[in-house]
Design brief:
3 helices
Length: 80
């Protein structure tokens, strides 16, 4: 019997990036600029806070913080 390991939920302080495939098919993509900058898809951004199904993400650039739906975010893996 194989059991899948439950995925850890994203939380404040996690480093993330936006999953381009999921975002491009979302209703949020229809309401926003279609050409988001590449850094949101490459990461990392840091989750500053979470409210219901959305996370506020700060990028390591001089740009405003952005709210994304949690299911559009993936945890960024730091490679050393």
């Amino acid at each position: 019997m194989t059991e899948s390991i439950p995925k850890k939920p994203l939380k404040k302080g996690n480093l993330v990036y936006v999953d381009k495939d999921i975002y491009s098919k979302s209703i949020e993509a229809l309401a926003s600029d279609k050409d988001l900058p590449n850094y949101v898809f490459e990461g990392p951004g840091e989750i500053l806070g979470i409210k219901e199904d959305y996370a506020q993400v700060r990028w390591r650039r001089p740009v405003p913080d952005v709210w994304f739906k949690l299911d559009q975010l993936k945890e960024y893996a730091v490679v050393e």
